[in-house]
Design goal:
heterodimer, A: mainly alpha, ABC transporter involved in vitamin B12 uptake, BtuC, two-stranded antiparallel sheet, 14 helices, B: mainly alpha, 15 helices, 4 strands, 75% helix, 2% strand
Chain lengths: 337, 352
């Protein structure tokens, strides 16, 4: 029992959890609206898309890289699929859109993977390039515009809810979207992948030390390639969920989200230099950022503060993580990958 | 066996390395010539117009100055992604000072004073912002990518807080006039600013110990520290310089747009990184020449202005072209690196 206790208080996640509790209490005291059924459901709803993105970004960061292309990737995949389905007057179920988006996401992820697995160039620079290629293809070649009327199956999926929570005081209702289940399922699959497969161990090994992983027998290239394919799929699914949830396709809606997601992953205790991190931490980090962003309105703080506070969160979060790495003696490796 | 040893020796010796660098410069010169040739033939009239070249000379100092700063940081094996944020924050600071000290209708003397104070403040802001980056990278040891992405959000956030997200305009007319002026009626002032800034960097890189030290630091940080270099101070100074140059870019943007806003120049981050990588600077540090970067700036400006002459190519294609060029260049560098076996891009901390 005491060993477990020791383990808990040493874990990074525990402190993130404490911060979340403190923030929640602060908001509750200031607004009195935090611990209401509908606010909590709203938060869960707002978690889905950033949560999925964060899982993808987490996988890349654990492998020692950084991916800034996933919002552009998701936008392009979902825009292309939505455009195609709308133009062909698609009336069928939701499965085909998902299948197409997954296929396209895998393809675009493979594009990322091709470069990142073969070039000894920091993955940030590569994904900066591919992100621009993706958004250039979407805005230039496909000349993207807002699509107000998405296929009925997608709109219906966006409206479908698991249950509806009502605020007894204000009477406001919030519904829990079915897509929350997708977040749970993806998190479970990735958890399994990281825990119980050689592929998952390979991701951690590469992030810890690439040449050591290679000598230990991991196929670094293949692991990295499939890693980016998987991340592409997760990002594209998140994009589709966002589009369904909004009830319309807004091509640039997701762009610019990458920093918030990376901040969430790093806040959750994932080592920025790769090799360590936990899915629990990622989910807690995402929750913290979503709470902060959603609650600014409850607290009456102007939205102008959002970008500033995000920057501060990133610097403080990465700073703490970097100092921890330096203290654990790995400091010399804490440089650009 | 012996052949391999000789080859190693040769590749270590300066002459061969200079040659291999020169092949990259040659490649850049060829690219430049091809581009100029292409646009000269396809769009002869527009391309040989003096106005085209003058407008280019006004435009490229904006991202060219940022690229110079990014180049310095990349030579130390870092990167500075906050340059656009620094530029906007500095420009907004300058605009606020000018508007405060010399509101519309102020007399020329007041306006001159206000402009001088504003420029000093903007440069100081840039240097301070850069120093913060340097502190985060060197002392707190956040990887440069994350530190500068974070400060980018922070600086942009500050810019939004100051302006409320709206543009700041109505600057004293004198400010715009100075930057719109032309030396001998021919050379635009931004180009002069850029030329002076480039020469200063060149002196710094070739004539001072600082220049040699940042190459050493970028080649092998551990070795540099063990040879007694104060790496912390070096990094802080490098990032401070980068911030200073970014704020200079901000001042040029302020003059060119005659206003300042938190989200101006949003594509310049990628452009600056692209220029530096295209210019032959190794993203893993320790390698790269100023001349290559200047050539890369010219290539991209000519490409951009040339594309402008084709009205049916939408502006939205631009990110596609920038991203595509970036990917093509790093792939080409990788392939040519593999061919001359000793120039393979190396991981962190490996000697060359």
């Amino acid at each position: 029992m005491s060993a477990l206790f020791q383990k808990v208080i040493r874990a990074n996640e525990f402190y993130v959890f404490l911060v979340i509790v403190a923030v929640c209490l602060l908001i509750q005291v200031r607004s009195g609206q935090f611990f209401t059924a509908n606010n909590l459901v709203d938060l869960a709803n707002a978690m889905v898309v950033p949560g999925l993105f964060a899982i993808g970004a987490f996988l890349v960061i654990v492998s020692g890289g950084i991916d800034v292309s996933f919002p552009a990737l998701a936008s392009l995949a979902v825009y292309a699929v939505t455009r195609f389905l709308v133009d062909s007057h698609y009336e069928g179920g939701i499965l085909l859109p998902f299948a197409m988006v997954i296929g396209l996401g895998a393809l675009l992820g493979a594009f990322n993977g091709l470069f990142t697995s073969r070039l000894a160039v920091p993955s940030l620079i590569i994904t900066l390039g591919t992100a621009n290629v993706f958004s250039g293809v979407m805005q230039g070649a496909l000349s993207s515009v807002q699509i107000a009327k998405i296929p009925p199956a997608m709109a219906e999926f966006g409206r479908s809810s698991l249950f509806v929570a009502t605020n007894p005081v204000s009477g406001l209702t919030s519904s829990m979207p079915v897509s929350f289940l997708i977040l749970v399922v993806v998190a479970a699959i990735v958890f399994f992948l990281l825990r119980f497969t050689m592929f998952g161990r390979g991701i951690f090994a590469i992030g810890g030390d690439e040449s050591a992983a290679s000598r230990a027998g991991f196929n670094v290239r293949r692991t990295k390639f499939w890693l980016y394919v998987i991340v592409g799929v997760i990002a594209a699914v998140a994009g589709l969920i966002r589009t369904c949830g909004m009830g319309q396709m807004h091509p640039t809606n997701l762009l610019g989200m990458e920093m918030m997601v990376i901040a969430a992953v790093v806040l959750g205790g994932t080592a920025i230099t790769g090799g360590t991190g936990s899915l629990t931490g990622v989910m807690l980090g995402t929750l913290l950022i979503v709470i902060v962003q959603n609650s600014m309105i409850l607290l009456g703080i102007p939205t102008f503060w959002q970008q500033f506070s995000l920057g501060l969160l990133i610097i403080v979060g990465t700073g703490i993580s970097a100092l921890q790495i330096a203290r654990s003696g790995n400091g010399l490796r804490a440089v650009l990958r | 066996m012996k052949g391999a040893a000789v080859q190693t020796l040769l590749s270590r010796s300066g002459s061969l390395r200079a040659l291999s660098r020169d092949t990259h410069l040659t490649r850049l010169l060829v690219m430049l010539a091809v581009l100029v040739g292409f646009f000269a033939i396809v769009k002869t009239e527009g391309f040989f117009n003096l106005l085209t070249w003058q407008s280019m000379a006004i435009q490229f100092p904006e991202f060219g100055l940022m690229a110079l700063g990014v180049m310095l940081t990349m030579i130390t094996a870092g990167i500075d992604l906050s340059v656009v944020g620094v530029a906007n924050m500095a420009a907004i600071g300058a605009a606020v000072v000018m508007l405060g000290m010399a509101p519309r209708g102020a007399d020329p003397a007041t306006a001159t004073g206000a402009i001088a104070v504003a420029i000093c403040l903007a440069l100081a802001t840039g240097a301070a912002a850069g120093a913060l980056n340097g502190f985060l990278v060197a002392k707190v040891r956040i990887p440069p990518i994350l530190a500068t992405l974070g400060t980018f959000e922070l600086f942009t956030g500050i810019a939004i807080l100051i302006t409320g997200g709206k543009p700041k305009s109505g600057l004293p007319a004198l400010y715009g006039e100075v930057f719109a002026g032309k030396l001998f009626g021919l050379i635009p002032v931004p180009l002069i600013v850029f030329a002076v800034a480039t020469v200063l960097i060149w002196l710094l890189m070739t004539r001072t110990a600082f220049g040699t030290k940042i190459y050493m630091l970028g080649t092998n940080a551990t070795a540099a520290r063990f040879s007694g270099l104060n790496t912390t101070s070096l990094l802080v100074r490098t990032y401070t310089l980068s911030g200073l140059y970014a704020s200079l870019a901000g001042l040029v943007m302020l003059a060119n747009y005659n206003s300042a806003k938190a989200d101006y120049g949003s594509t310049y981050t990628l452009l600056a990184v692209l220029i530096v990588v295209l210019g032959g600077v190794n993203p893993n540090g320790g390698n790269g020449r100023l001349l290559g970067v200047v050539l890369a700036i010219l290539i991209l400006q000519i490409l951009s202005s040339g594309l402008n002459m084709f009205p049916n190519i939408s502006n939205f294609y631009r990110p596609l072209i920038w991203g595509g060029v970036l990917l093509a260049v790093i792939t080409a560098n990788h392939l040519s690196g593999r061919r001359s076996s000793h120039r393979t891009s190396k991981g962190q901390g490996q000697t060359k």
